[in-house]
Amino acid sequence: MRLVVVTGMSGAGKTIALKMLEDMGFYCVDNLPISLLEPFVQLAVRPGASDKVALGIDIRSGQELPQLQHVLEDWKANGIPYQILFLDAKDETLVKRYKETRRSHPLAGRGRLDGGIRQEREKLEFLKEDADYIIDTSQLLTRELRQELEKIFLNNQDYENLYITVLSFGFKYGIPTDADLVFDVRFLPNPYYVDSLRQHTGEEAEVQAYVRQGGTADAFLLKLYDLMEFLIPNYVLEGKNQLVIAVGCTGGRHRSVTIANALYQYLSNHEEFGLKIEHRDISR
Questions:
Q1: What is the C-alpha separation between 152 and 145, in angstroms, rounded?
Q2: I need a surface site. Which of 51, 156, 216, 250 has the fewest CB within 10 A?
Q3: d(Cα 37, Cα 43) in Å, to the nearest integer?
C-alpha cells in the first residue's frame, strides 16, 4: 500500500492536490481527526483495501496536531510505510491568495494575516523537516502542479523537491524580484538594430541564428550549462525547492529569449526536477 500524508501551508494548494491524487486512483480522506488515524490506517492496510491512500492533515487539526508526530513514529516502528507531501508557498503569495478569496486564516483570528501564517509555519515545521516531497506552488499553474504530482505518484520518477523556472526579461522593465540567478546577455548581437528582425522574437529561428552568430553565444551557453551542473545538485542538497533563473537583455524580446530557450532545452534532459519557462517581456 502507498500511504501519503498531504500537508502544508493553508492556501498552498492541498485541497487541489488531494483532488488530483483522487483522479490518480488514491482513496483520499481530508481533515481526519488525529485520534482516528491509527484505526483508519489499520483498516486501510488490510487485504482487499485500497492500495493507494492519501490523508489530508494540516493546521485544522488544532491542538491535536502535535500528536501526529507520535503517530508517525509509531508507523515507522510498526513498519507501516508512508510518505509526506508538503505543499508550500512564499508568504507574499499566501497573503495574496487569501486576499483574493477573502477567506480568513485559521490562526489569524482578529490579528493580521501574516501573523497567522508565521504561527502556522512554526507548527508545521516538524512535518516539513520530515517531508519526502516539498512542492512550492508560488509560481505554479494548476496544470503544472498536476504534472509534478504525476511525476511522483504515477511515473515514480526521482524527485529532488526542486522546481526551476527559466525566465527571460528586459532590463528596461526591471529585474524580476523573485530571481535567484540573473544573467545579463546584452553583450550578444542585438537583432533590434536589424529592420527585418526587430518585430520578431527569440522564439524564431532567424532571430536565434543572428544572436548565435560568431560563436559567442554558444561559448557562453557551454559555460552556463557547466555552471548549472554544479549549482543545481548543491541547491538540492541545501534544501532549496524553488529556483528562478533569469536571463535578461535590453527589451526582453530577442537575446534573452534565445538564451533562455536554449537553457530550458538543455535542462529538460534532466527529469529529477520540475521545469518551466516564461518570457516575461516578449510581448512588450
A1: 11
A2: 156
A3: 10
Percent of the chain with pLDDT over 70: 98
The domain spans of the chain are 2-153, 163-279
**For the segment 215-252, what is each residue's pLDDT rounded down to a tens digit?**
999 999 999 999 999 999 999 888 888 899 999 999 99
112, 178, 134, 96: which is closest to 14 by C-alpha?
134
CA 107, 105, 121, 42 torsion-angle sign = positive
| pTM for this model (two decimals) | 0.77
CA–CA separation, 135 vs 12, rounded Å? 9
Sheet strands (E) in the chain: 2-8, 27-30, 52-56, 83-88, 133-136, 163-170, 181-184, 242-249, 274-279
Q: Are 212 and 239 in contact (CB under 8 A)?
A: no
83-88: strand order across its sheet: 27-30, 52-56, 2-8, 83-88, 133-136
Q: Binning pLDDT at 50, 70 and 90, where does residue 265 land?
A: very high
Q: Label residue 74 by pLDDT band (50, 70, 90).
A: very high
- Average the pLDDT over each of 57-71, 107-121, 188-202, 210-224 and give the range with the smallest value: 107-121
- What cell was used for 6? 498531504
| SS3 assignment, position 281 | coil
According to DSSP, the β-strands at 83-88 and 52-56 are unpaired
Q: The cell 526521482 sits on which residue?
A: 158
Q: For domain 2-153, is the CATH number 3.40.630.190?
A: no
d(CA 254, CA 170): 10
CA 54-60-62 angle, to 5 degrees, is 120
